[in-house]
């Protein structure tokens, strides 16, 4: 049994590490010698590589600003947000925490995050890509900083591909397979592989249901209008995206247990060599390189009307209840400077949000030749895609998507019925008009 990211995270214990902290975005003011006023609490989860990146940055903070400290608390992912929510309700949250972009909007919408527009220098936003900066905005103001991103390309078992005579893969994001071309490849694999080995698996299990939205974007669709309330999924593009995903199951391109609510993650199926391809984020690369005993590489997710991909990754946010807003802003500035972001992303095989790293200069420490595939894959994500996922109601929308798409993929609901159901559910979640 290979160690997945999820099982790895579950095994991490709580760790507290004091470190020094400061940054040029905002230099903390003198606190009169009060120890607590000089210590920032920071809660996160992380893989071994991610936590090593945080700790390396923390040592840099201590060298730069002796006396400014951060208490780093690392917890298992499964406990992370149960703990954060309970602490917010009790009035004793950490000063800073890590949050997925798809959860950011809910915290910002409830007024639980610190408005950084007055704390960060005005030019800090210019360091980030437009897409990344859009992901941490609420009502036109920043309530966090985009620490890193990730997106799903396709990991490929080259041995299984060669069994079907597929030896050429797209060499650029502009040459990515269209849906028809992906279907042709899947048909070739289905005909050549053993009955219990499948062409691919899609990583939309659990909260990963947001990755189905990549197909919706590829079809030229949206699930919310610009107001983040009015549902837009009941459309020709929505029906095409549902119908195409239904073919995965109807034509046995994916295993039957690759559904939205499956307890089996797509990556687990690929590790066991039961599929030739898997949609995956770059974060899987270090584990795969250490674990797999078959040759593999990466290629691009498909395109249709346009390229489309998921905006994964995490922001760093300060809580509105923090008594150290200046120190929190200093931390958020420091950790997103180029040296710290480059080190973190290269260690953990994650994608940067800084313009000067996206445009070059980044190389994963493991399988560096795959860096460009994931960086280019992320380039097809549009700011308007991210703005939808940053909806304050995204947690409720995720439940709507999980239920509606599961019914479409394994419950027999048709595409037209499915998007109509999703439209009504999203309207109920956002208070918009269906």
TrEMBL record:
InterPro entries referenced in this protein's UniProt entry, alphabetically: SBP, TAT_signal
This one is known as: Sugar ABC transporter substrate-binding protein
Note whether Membrane occurs among the keywords.
no
What molecular function terms (GO) are annotated for this protein?
maltose binding
Q: Which domain of life is it from?
A: Bacteria
SUPFAM superfamilies attached to this UniProt entry: Periplasmic binding protein-like II
Native organism: Curtobacterium luteum
What family is reported? Belongs to the bacterial solute-binding protein 1 family.
> Which keywords does the record carry?
Signal, Transport
> Which stretch is the leader sequence?
1-22
Q: Which terms under GO biological process does the entry name?
A: maltodextrin transmembrane transport; maltose transport
The record's annotation in Pfam families points to: SBP_bac_1
Q: Where do the TM regions start and end?
A: none
Any GO CC annotation of this UniProt entry: ATP-binding cassette (ABC) transporter complex, substrate-binding subunit-containing
């Amino acid at each position: 049994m290979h160690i997945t990211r999820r099982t790895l995270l579950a095994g991490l214990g709580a760790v507290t590490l004091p470190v020094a902290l400061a940054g040029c975005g905002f230099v903390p003011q003198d606190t009169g010698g009060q120890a607590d006023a000089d210590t920032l609490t920071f809660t996160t989860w992380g893989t071994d590589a991610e936590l090593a990146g945080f700790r390396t940055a923390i040592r840099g903070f201590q060298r730069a600003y002796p006396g400014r400290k951060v208490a780093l608390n690392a917890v298992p992912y499964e406990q992370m947000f149960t703990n954060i929510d309970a602490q917010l309700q009790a009035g004793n949250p950490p000063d800073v925490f890590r949050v997925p972009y798809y959860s950011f909007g809910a915290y910002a919408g409830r007024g639980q995050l610190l408005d950084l527009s007055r704390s960060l220098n005005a030019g800090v936003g210019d360091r980030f890509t437009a897409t990344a900066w859009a992901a941490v905005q609420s009502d036109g103001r920043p309530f966090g900083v985009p620490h890193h991103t990730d997106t799903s390309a396709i990991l490929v078992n080259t041995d299984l591909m060669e069994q079907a005579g597929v030896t050429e893969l797209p060499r650029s994001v502009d040459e990515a397979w269209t849906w028809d071309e992906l279907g042709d490849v899947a048909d070739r694999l289905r005909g050549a592989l053993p009955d219990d080995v499948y062409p691919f698996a899609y990583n939309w299990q659990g909260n990963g249901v947001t990755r189905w939205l990549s197909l919706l974007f590829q079809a030229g669709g949206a699930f919310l209008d610009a107001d983040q309330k009015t549902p837009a999924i009941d459309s020709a593009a929505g029906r095409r995206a549902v119908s195409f995903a239904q073919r995965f199951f109807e034509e046995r391109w994916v295993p039957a247990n690759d559904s939205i609510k499956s307890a089996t993650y797509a990556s687990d199926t690929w590790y066991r060599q039961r599929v030739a391809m898997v949609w995956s984020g770059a974060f899987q690369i270090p584990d795969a390189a250490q674990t797999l005993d078959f040759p593999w590489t990466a290629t691009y997710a498909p395109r249709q009307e346009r390229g489309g991909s998921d905006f994964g990754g995490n922001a760093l946010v300060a809580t509105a209840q923090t008594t150290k807003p200046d120190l929190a802003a200093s931390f958020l500035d420091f950790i997103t400077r180029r040296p710290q972001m480059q080190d973190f992303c290269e260690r953990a095989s994650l994608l940067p949000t800084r313009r000067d790293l996206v445009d070059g200069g980044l190389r994963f420490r493991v399988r560096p030749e795959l860096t460009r595939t994931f960086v280019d894959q992320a380039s097809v994500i549009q700011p308007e895609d991210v703005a939808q996922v940053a909806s304050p109601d995204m947690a409720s929308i995720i439940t709507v998507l999980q239920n509606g798409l599961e019914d479409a993929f394994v419950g027999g609901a048709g595409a037209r019925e499915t998007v109509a159901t999703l439209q009504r559910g999203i309207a109920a979640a956002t208070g918009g008009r269906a």
